[in-house]
Amino acid sequence: MAKVILFTVVVIVVGIFIAFLLLRNTEKGKHRFEKVLVYLYAPLALWSICYYFWCLHGTGLSFIWLWPAIAVFGAIRIVMLCGEIKDKPLIRIPKWIYRAYRICFGIGLIAFAIIEAMVLQAMNASPKPGLDYVIVLGAQVKGEEPSPTLEKRIVRAAEYMQANPETMLIASGGQGSDEEISEAECIRRVLTEQYDISKERILLEDQSTSTEENLKFSMNILGKNDATVGIVTNGFHEFRAMMIAEKEGYLDANSVPAETLLPIGIHYTVREFFGIVQFKVMRR
What we know:
Helices cover about 60% and strands about 10% of the residues.
């Protein structure tokens, strides 16, 4: 966390300084709104490209193109705004197009803020004690060992199981082509061998390949939809997981959020916006 904060502060300061250099010879008292936008876009563009090369480049994660795209968008807007401020616009854009852009951009920004607020709320939810079951959603297994993402889910599940000795657990996740064991089996092994959770308290669902299948196949194991169930996944993923649980017929699903790893968790959290929008558009 400290590294992320330091990185952000340094980049913002440098971005503001760059904006100052770009605007230092402009006339004072005019184009104040446009100047404010330059001071916003410069740190945003710089932060996005630095973040991409800091922890995303070469990872193969989906949507990593988003950050270079934001940087390019910010740079283009800075050039256009500086042209307006200096009364030397590079392109003459009809006013109706500019107004339409501002309206669409504003609506998109508001939607993003609302959805991300709900994601962050679910990320910090406090789970209800004494649940009948918790379902640990699978994530990548490296050989026979959990990935850092899956490890955080297992740790959170172990904490809940130790604090609630009557709760049963469903370890959910199939075996990928590059995995030596199923994600469900990996979850069970770590819980029993490292956290002394009894095997009798763990049920396996080892056929699923997605969150939708995690919850659908786990429902088949439950055999009923009125059990109190906790969904254990990384915090950034909780809100969408709860939406999917509702779609799959869970009547009393609860968030049991695990830690979101930083700095890569920033990407996951922002990416959730697109996943949620897609879910709303495609699955409803």
